[in-house]
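Page 47, continued from p. 46.
Same chain as before, 599 aa.
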Amino acid sequence: MAAPKRGRSASAQSKPGRSLALILIAIVALTGGMFLSGNTTPRLGIDLAGGTSITLQAQNEPGQPNAINKANMDTAVDIMNRRVNGLGVSEAEVQTQGTSNIIVNIPKGTNSEEARQQVGTTAKLYFRPVLAQEASAGSASSASPSASASGSSSASPSTTASPSSSASASEKATGSSSATPSSSATSQGRAVTDALKADSTPSSSAFAASSASPSASSSADASASAEASKLQAEYTALDCSKAAQRATAGKSAKPADATVACGQVSGAWYKYVLGPAAVDGTEVKKAQAVFDTQGASGWQVQMNFSSSGAKKFADITASLAKNSQPQNEFGIVLDGEVVSSPYVQQSITGGQAEISGSFTQEEAQSLSNMLSYGALPLSFKTQSVTTVTAALGGEQLHAGLLAGAIGLALVVIYLVVYYRGLSLVAMASLLVSAILTYVLMALLGPAIGFALNLPAVCGAIVAIGITADSFIVFFERIRDEIREGRTLRPAVERAWPRARRTILVSDFVSFLAAAVLFIVTVGKVQGFAFTLGLTTVLDVVVVFFFTKPLMTVLARRKFFASGHKWSGLDPKGLGAQPPLRRTRRPAGPVAGPVDPKEA
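Result:
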């Protein structure tokens, strides 16, 4: 039974090259990915690279004079922090200042305009029926075709932070591309009238009455008629090609009222008349950006509705499917802007829908991010946007790196003096660990927004001690085996299982501490915890796939196997005792029984 065990052990010892080749391939692949991605340096935090500081002032919502309170401000900070710092390692900071201001600090390399929209937008989403649409003055109608909405909605991104609408050419052809009203606009007005007659809200009914005929208008309530006339005038005068008008169109509309709004299609701006909101954005239970691997849709945003939202969405799509364009469209309105206006051919049931089109990954994730984390409880106005310098952080980084270099030099000196030749194994392992740490930090910057700040640098310096400790445990186990009289090759294999248990327990405790610290803290401390956890995991990888296999290879070399005095494994220098051996008595003639008297 012992022979097969020795055979398996010999086979395992004879193939350390596989592990060394595996980690070499991993290093080459990760380094190649780093250069191909164009991110050859880690993304730095605001304290090391500077960045942008945005001051937002809370505004009371209409009809809610006491909305600015501690609870709402804390909720807003939490939502903003998740939007710009979802994984806690991007080094973005969100904190309150006083009773009505929020300060957002964003590291250099982040688009400050996009970030401001991410943190400050209320992300109020409504699904409204489209009653009329036409190209605004100064916009060329060049919409690209889109499919009908059957279980999903089609959209294409705009050049702004939020994706814009995608509509078919036939949809936009119904609207006049000229700036002045035409017979086409008149026919649209009649269509709007027919659509609004079915609505029971006062403003919509009044608008229908004013659009239908003078006699109908005279029979409507005077105040409602005035409101409807105002809406019709706004639609006629609205020019969405002008940024000033886009900034106000539909922004203050209540969900139960009809409104005008703007939306962009393939670079051209269109204006819309929208009915009352049929589905509220709060009914969206989940939104996520996914890549369509089965078709040609590319990046898309998938939405799951709540049970009540699914019913409302099925009802509105069933109602719209009976109409002709553009009254069979529903506008997805985000913060007063139409981001999509797909047409419907049948009722969309099941509580699931998609917004798909020409999204980039960033645009799809941006929209899903806002929808997933919900609406802010308050509206915010940007008070100031300032640039933060990194002068102080640069000095601290220089001092920190100097301290790290001194610490590393002391560790190397200790290894060389005490372990001699084994110090080469330790330094090679430290080098491999440093390469992996650097490459992963560079790749994690664009991948998850990881930013290297001063606490993260401290975490990387602390990791030097953790990694060196693993080598020392292994080396001391090998020396213990040699002291017991074993040669190097069996000493390495016998020492490894014992050292492995100690290393795993030690690294588990370090990783657990890092995980707890990451969970219970916020801000820069999370950067320290993340780096400590990352380097702890890399320590296990390096010891298992590099240090131990390298030690197995070196145990076959004469310099180490013979116990050279500079190898650090000299049996005499370690005080090794020769193995105990049994001595046999020399064989002699067999004597007969001895007479007791003779004795």
